[in-house]
Amino acid sequence: MSRHFVPPQVHISRWSKTNGRRGFRMFATRAAGSSGQV
């Protein structure tokens, strides 16, 4: 779980610059539903 939760964080850094808060919020919701940790 910990290993699978690392890649998305690195990708969000690049995506955050392009999408901004909208991308981060959508991603956080998706990650939370999948991982249930965020």
Number of helices: 2
One letter per element, helices H and strands E, the order comes to HH
Which percent bin holds the helix content?
Answer: over 70%
Question: Given the C-alpha coordinates, what overall shape results?
Answer: flat
The amount of beta strand, in percent, is: under 5%
Mean pLDDT across every amino acid position: 60
* Terminus-to-terminus distance: 12 Å
Our Rg estimate from Cα atoms comes to: 10 Å
What number of domains? Answer: 1
What does this structure look like?
By secondary structure, this protein is an all-alpha fold. The protein has one domain. 74% of the residues lie in helices and 0% in strands. The radius of gyration is 10 Å and the shape is flat. It starts with 5 loop residues before the first helix and ends with a helix.
Secondary structure topology:
Elements: H1 6-19, H2 21-34
Quick recap:
The chain is mostly helical. It has helices at residues 6-19, 21-34.
List keywords for this structure.
flat; mainly alpha
